[in-house]
Design brief:
This protein is an all-alpha fold and 80 residues long. The protein has 4 helices and no strands. It has one domain: Orthogonal Bundle (Non-ribosomal Peptide Synthetase Peptidyl Carrier Protein, Chain A). The longest helix has 15 residues.
């Protein structure tokens, strides 16, 4: 999952995927902006089958590749 996300981010930002580490802050480092986030949300929906709600669109969920993966794992886990 991490590699899929990393490859997508690299593709839309033209940044070498080797430089996008799991913990790099995507917004603080200028890798992502709001348009990049919208593209990522569409990718997550279409390629991973995970729907996001407006309340999900927080920096906590989309700060880095690690936080994105954690968010997706929570969304995929059925409620107990």
């Amino acid at each position: 999952m991490k590699e899929q996300i990393r490859a997508f981010i690299s593709e839309i930002t033209f940044i070498d995927k080797e430089t996008i580490t799991d913990d790099v802050s995507l917004f603080e480092q200028g890798i992502f902006d709001s348009m990049g986030l919208l593209s990522l949300i569409t990718f997550i929906d279409e390629e991973m089958g995970v729907k996001t709600d407006d309340g999900d669109l927080t920096e906590e969920n989309f700060k880095s590749i690690n936080t994105i993966v954690s968010f997706l794992e929570r969304k995929k886990t059925p409620a107990n």
